[in-house]
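Researcher: Here's a chain I'd like modeled. Treat it as a single chain, no partners, no ligands.
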Amino acid sequence: MPAVPINFLLNVIHGFFSLIYFGAVLIFGIFGPKLSKLSEGTVSDLMLTVFPTLMSFIEASGMITIVFGAGEFFFYMIGYYKDGGIIEVERILFSTDWGLCVFIGGILGIIGFSIGLYIASNFEKMFKLYRSLDPSVADEIRIVQNKIRLYSIIGLAFLTLTVIFMVLAVSFLPLPKEVMTAN
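Model: Modeled as a single isolated chain. Structure tokens:
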């Protein structure tokens, strides 16, 4: 029975978790601001029970996406390096449409994920504020909610551009030359 090529496994895992991560960011970026329209009790229940687990899952999906995307990137770059050294890697990355899309998409993805980590830290602050019994934290909650809204939109923009570049690279642009699959 033939072995499944490593680049196929990396691509499937990276693609699957990137869809989850992008979908979650999209939902939070679009529907997150609507949470302020819910009753205070409902928002408090969500912050204490649902969102901490959901945020952990989203962060894990983002990490898996980054790790397997980097694995995929290095798989191809090692193949190009074997073919012609660092000069060949530079040529592929900066002189081909495929290389530029992958490189730019990867950089934008890392920036978008970093923004996501900042958003997650703000959610952690908000979770703590909702656990607080001090009623004077309402203003601080609003400040944190506004940060989350703003950075969700910025992160969504970066990740949308990332998805566009990555889909362009893997769906419409050919690999500069075929890289041997690892056995």
